[in-house]
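Re: that backbone. Tokens:
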């Protein structure tokens, strides 16, 4: 079907508008992160796109240095929240991917536990606040409140349905003849999984792990309810950045947001060669 030139022009214009709409918040955050306090405080000009006097004061401030007489030094720096987010997100992603991949492979290949998919998706059907209240009570009883391992365990459980459903789709699309050939050659089922199936699933595993990691990394509600001071994560810490003299610390929040964007970007770049294949795995299944 031949499309008219007007259609291509319209499509290009629509893509450019969508790109601008997506990039404006990012550009605003980058600009705000390098503005001095005089340009982002309540008395400053918040509508300027580019900082007139670029500075690294916002980054120094969130790591404990007092950079202006208008705002006092922070009692808690951003170092511990960054560490808390990294530990809880990485461990939570590992838990979700290990359990989700094992469950998805078992259900895809053996067909047992046919009610398991519905049971897992029910973890996401209830409002998060309603689910987290009893979890908070149990975690308080187990002395897991304000610990990174307690937060990691909840992250693994909450994101398990995503890992399971994604991996099950990929396993269903993978031809079974390859595994059957390995079984005929004398490989055990576990050896087939570890030496044949999983190496072929590097793309799907990478794309699924990236999605699960981003969900854990950007969480606010769970961390707000299960951490108090020592192991608060980046989103919770960012919400507390305010001053009685200047109000919201927009520059400090933008600087921390820019730092928070680094791990997902690095992870995405590191697995980009597997990412496209993982997202399109099985698309051309005969």
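Recovered sequence:
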């Amino acid at each position: 079907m031949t499309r008219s030139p007007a259609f291509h022009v319209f499509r290009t214009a629509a893509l450019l508008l969508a790109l601008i709409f997506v990039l404006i918040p990012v550009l605003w955050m980058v600009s705000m992160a390098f503005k001095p306090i005089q340009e982002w405080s309540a008395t400053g000009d918040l509508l300027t796109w580019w900082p007139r006097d670029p500075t690294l004061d916002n980054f120094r401030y969130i790591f404990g240095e007092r950079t202006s007489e208008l705002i006092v030094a922070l009692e808690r720096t951003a170092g511990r929240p960054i560490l808390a987010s990294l530990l809880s997100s990485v461990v939570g992603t590992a838990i979700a991917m290990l359990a989700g991949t094992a469950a998805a492979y078992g259900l895809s290949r053996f067909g047992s536990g046919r009610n398991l998919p519905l049971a897992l998706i029910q973890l996401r059907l209830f409002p998060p606040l309603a689910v987290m209240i009893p979890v908070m009570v149990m975690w308080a009883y187990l002395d897991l409140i304000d610990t990174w391992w307690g937060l990691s365990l909840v992250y693994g459980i909450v994101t398990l349905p995503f890992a399971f459903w994604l991996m099950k789709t990929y396993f269903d699309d993978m031809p079974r003849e390859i595994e059957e050939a390995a079984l005929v050659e004398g490989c055990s089922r576990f050896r087939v999984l570890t030496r044949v199936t999983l190496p072929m699933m590097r793309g799907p595993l990478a794309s699924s792990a990236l999605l699960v990691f981003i969900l854990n990394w950007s969480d606010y509600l769970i961390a707000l309810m299960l951490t108090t001071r020592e192991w608060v994560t980046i989103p919770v810490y960012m919400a507390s950045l305010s001053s009685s003299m200047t109000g919201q610390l927009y520059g400090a929040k933008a600087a921390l947001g820019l730092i928070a964007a680094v791990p997902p970007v690095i992870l995405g770049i590191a697995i980009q060669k597997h990412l496209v294949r993982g997202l399109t795995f099985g698309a051309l299944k005969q």
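The radius of gyration is 23 Å. Residues 124 and 182 are 37 Å apart (CA to CA).
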